[in-house]
Every structure is written in C-alpha cells, then in structure tokens.
Amino acid sequence: MTDQALKTTPLNAAHRALGARMVGFGGYDMPVQYEGVLAEHRWTREHAGLFDVSHMGQCKITGGDATAQFERFVPGDYEILKAGKQKYSLLLNKDGGIIDDLMAGRPDHDGLFVVVNAGNKDEDFTFWEANLEGDAKLTVLDRALIAIQGPEAAEVMAAHEPILAEMGFMECARLMLFGVDCYVSRSGYTGEDGYEISVPADQAERVWNTLLEDARVKPIGLGARDSLRLEAGLPLHGHDIDPTTSPVEGALTFALSKSRKERADFNGADRILKELADGAARVRIGLIVKEGAPAREGAEIADMDGNVIGKITSGGPSPTLGKNIAMGFVPPAFSALGADLKVIVRGKTAAAEVVTMPFVAQRYYRKPKTV
Amino acid sequence: MKFTKDHEWVSLDGDIATVGISKHAADALGDVVFVEVPEVGKTVAKGASFAVVESVKAASDVYAPVSGEVVEANDALSTAPETVNSAPQADGWFAKIKVSDASELDALMDQAAYDAFLATL
C-alpha cells in the first residue's frame, strides 16, 4: 500500500519487485531493506552495494558567472575547481548555520552539477531560484541517482567502462555509460570506494537491473545506508547538523576553503571565523558506548558527575565493530579523544568514550601521485 | 499460546506466564541487536511497556500482555539478542510473569485468531 502523500523514484517498481520493505523518507517511498540491514551492511563492506538515492535533489547551475554566484552561498572555493573535480560544501544561512550539505562538481564545462539532500531540495532550489542573478540559472534535473559502493564497486564498473577505474576519489565526469548520458562521480556516503551515477529517469530501471546482474552486486536499503554512513563518521543533515549548527560545531571545517576564510566573504563568516579562533560552544564528537543499549538520537550525554552536557544526534550498533557507536554534541572541554563520558538511555546511565571518527576506516580510492 | 494485537505472545503454565514477541513481530523488526528485559521483582501492568527490543534501525517497546510480577527474565538475550529472530516463540522469550489475574488472557487471541488478524494487516 503506497502512501498517497509520498513521491516515488523511477526505481520504485524495481524495489517492489525485489521484495523491499518500503518506508517514507524525505517525502519519498523508499526501500529501507531488502534481505536485512545487517546482511546488506556487511555485503557493502565486503563486495558492492547498489543504492537508489534518486530522492536526492540534482541540479545544474549554469550561465553567466553562475559559479561565482554559487560560491557566495557556500564557504568552498568553486571558481578555481578544475573540470573533472567535485567538492563537498555547505549551504549556509546568515548566521553561519547549515541549511544543507551538498556535493558540487564540474563534470563538464557547463557550470556546476549539484546534489543536495532530499528533505531540503525544495528549499535549496527555491533559494537558488530567488538568488541567482543575470544569466546564471538553476536547472532541476529529472534524473535517477544510483550509488554503487564497496571494495568491488570499481571492478564492477570497470567491466562496463574501463575509464571509471582511473577516476580518483571526488573526481567526476559526464560520459556515455550503459548507452546513455550520465554524470558519474567517485564518491559516496558509506566510507567505501564507489560511484554515484546520475542517469536519465527513463533509463534508471535498465541501468539498475544491469548492475544487479553482476553477482558481486546486491541492492542495499536506507537502513544499511544509515549504519554505513554512521560508521564512516558522516553527518546526516536534519539529524547531526541543521540550520542551527555551524561548520565548526559540526566538525566540518575541511569544507571551509583557505582563500574563503581569508576573504571572509561567505554567510556567517563573522561567527565561523570567531569560532575557529576561540572555539565553538559545542562540537560534534564520536562516541563508543561501552555498555548497555545503543544510544540513539535524542539520548543525553553527561559528564562523569552526571551533569547533562549534550545530546546524541545519531547512534546505533556498528555491525563492523560489534560495538554501539554514536555521534553527538558536547562542549569542547569534553571532546578530547579518550575522554570518559556517560550516555543516558531510557533513564539508565552507561559509560562512553570519545573516539576519533570515522569509526571504521574510510577506503576511498586515491590516485597514485604522478610526477 | 495466546497473542496480543501488539504482537506479544503469552503461554500460561499454572499462574506463571512466559511472554515474548511473535514471529511476525521478530520478522518485521529484522535483525535484533539488543534486548532490555525487565528486572525480576518488577510489577508490570497489562498494556504497559515492560521491555525494549532494538533492531539496527530503531528501539521498540514491548508491552506486557498480562499484569503481574516478573519472576524470571531471559538474561541470555543480553549476549544473544539474535535468539529473538531465530526462535521468537521459544528460546527468545523475554520474561516469566506471575499473573495477578489469569482472566486477562481470555481477551487475547489464540493462534487461529492471531493468524486471521495478521491477514488483515
């Protein structure tokens, strides 16, 4: 039974044919699992997982000085971004809070290709529509987005297009793949090597099924996508970061380009530069919960005296580590690696320790350096 | 064995009721990764949350199918929560409750009624 209020991706029928359990997410009817979250999580870490992420927003920002205008809304350096590269960035509000996090790249010589979160895309697109001036314009793309992630993803894709094996992490391209016009980037949301492939909506099911013919590839639902990204230490907008969170609080200062910090010309630069110099009121940390139940979103974090000092924003069991892991926010004084803290789950207090993120080592493909 | 609409089961032996979650509930939850069973000696009321079962994705309350006092908890689930998936209506039991009013079971569904109820979901 489909909830009438939910939108569908071009792969909805394919998910149902595979027997997926469907749930509402970001306004879409999406597969939460096929055979089971744990099995899908492990398959992705060991082989190659195929994800429908078509609920995410895809657009191009082109024309005139589009890239320069786009740059005004984010703290990254896009004007000097080379063709074939992409960067993670943050759409900031006037207070330096994160309206959304996004990937923007130059897969071709025609402006930027941008991917934003499903739950924020309408707001993001409306914002750009309202703020792009002159010849710069937003074009929302009616495309599916398919991610293939895992240590065997590169071999699977190379069988279809050998050149994909030569791409490095965070490189992107526009090319013919499966006989259709695709945008491909070597990136993802699992901590594994892999690709995100944007395909025309009417070709999505054919591409999806073609990839599933490979025995190394299995479909993976949003349940495992969430546990994979949690292990990879990657924040989920709307949970770990939101419009009240600054990039410094969110531990996302790598998204602040050096030249932009020097120019101090992005939204919220005053607050963000001050936080960089003096520290923020709170900071996102990783925790291992050493006993008891998983600490999930909303659970309180306390110091060793029992004083509540923060909250968990994501958490759950790590299938790879066999431990309960979590992200949350605490004042910087409590954020040192190895610091002992407590989490409070359903009234019970459990020991936790601040650990480095990612919880599970990322395995992105870095190209060998050439002289 | 009798069932509630919240997918708990209860099996009465004398005045001791063994309770757990149904196979349907265990299948719907998916991989169980943590179970919080009630403490022995705790008094539970029919319909109130008395245990928690967690999958990778979420924590779910388990409601007491009968009122009474917890006389035994299945502590084996703390180290082997997956038993709830493999044997939900046997070794995956949550607790044994000394029932205070056995007539509460009269309102619960037998297997045939529960199967019919599942068919309506």
TrEMBL record, chain A:
Positions of the Aminomethyltransferase C-terminal domain: 282-360
* Family annotation (Pfam families): GCV_T, GCV_T_C
Q: Which Gene3D superfamilies match?
A: Aminomethyltransferase beta-barrel domains, Aminomethyltransferase fragment, Probable tRNA modification gtpase trme, domain 1
User: Residue limits of the GCVT N-terminal domain?
Assistant: 13-258
UniProt entry tagged with the keyword Transferase: yes
Q: Does the keyword Transferase apply?
A: yes
Reactions the enzyme catalyzes = N(6)-[(R)-S(8)-aminomethyldihydrolipoyl]-L-lysyl-[protein] + (6S)-5,6,7,8-tetrahydrofolate = N(6)-[(R)-dihydrolipoyl]-L-lysyl-[protein] + (6R)-5,10-methylene-5,6,7,8-tetrahydrofolate + NH4(+)
TM ranges are none
Keyword line: Aminotransferase, Transferase
Q: What is its EC number?
A: 2.1.2.10
Instruction: State the family it belongs to.
Output: Belongs to the GcvT family.
Q: What is this protein called?
A: aminomethyltransferase
This protein's species is Brevundimonas intermedia
Automatic annotation (TrEMBL), chain B:
**Residues that bear N6-lipoyllysine:** K57
| Pfam families for this protein | GCV_H
Q: Where is the Lipoyl-binding domain?
A: 16-98
Residues forming coiled coils = none
Q: PROSITE patterns from the entry? A: BIOTINYL_LIPOYL, LIPOYL
Please give the subunit comment from the record.
Answer: The glycine cleavage system is composed of four proteins: P, T, L and H.
- What InterPro entries does the database record attribute to this sequence? 2-oxoA_DH_lipoyl-BS, Biotin_lipoyl, GCV_H, GCV_H/Fam206, GCV_H_sub, Single_hybrid_motif
Give the protein's biological function. Answer: The glycine cleavage system catalyzes the degradation of glycine. The H protein shuttles the methylamine group of glycine from the P protein to the T protein.
Provide the cofactor list for this protein. Answer: (R)-lipoate
Name the chain's protein: Glycine cleavage system H protein
The cofactor note reads: Binds 1 lipoyl cofactor covalently.
Identify its protein family: Belongs to the GcvH family.
Keywords, alphabetical: Lipoyl
Domain of life from the UniProt record: Bacteria
